[in-house]
């Protein structure tokens, strides 16, 4: 009996994960990208995604324009967005944001924060 339950749960989890990967692949083909990182909110309310120690400015292009309103500095994010513009800081249009966990601003490297402060 336990063996059947374990097999059933394993199949359900495998199908779920396959769906996530297939969805990510389909979005990549349509020009969308998926990124994860840590949120940093500037003094003027601009939201940045810190990905691999590089800041990416996020602009909310969702239908309602409310995807970034509840994000706090340090939050762990999973973001569906357009291509990233190569500027400093980089920028992208965001369509969906998923908070995957709470974090702490101290996790963001000081050199990233200081470079953004220099830009104003």
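-> sequence recovered:
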């Amino acid at each position: 009996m336990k063996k059947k339950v374990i097999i059933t749960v394993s199949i359900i989890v495998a199908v779920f994960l396959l769906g996530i990967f297939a969805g990510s692949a389909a979005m990549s083909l349509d020009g969308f990208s998926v990124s994860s990182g840590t949120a940093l909110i500037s003094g003027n309310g601009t939201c940045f995604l810190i990905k691999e120690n590089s800041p990416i400015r996020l602009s909310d292009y969702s239908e309602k324009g409310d995807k970034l309103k509840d994000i706090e500095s340090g939050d762990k994010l999973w973001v569906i967005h357009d291509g990233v513009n190569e500027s400093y800081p980089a920028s992208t249009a965001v369509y969906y944001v998923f908070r995957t966990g709470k974090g702490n601003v101290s996790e963001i490297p000081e050199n990233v924060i200081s470079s953004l402060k220099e830009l104003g």
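The longest strand covers residues 90-101.
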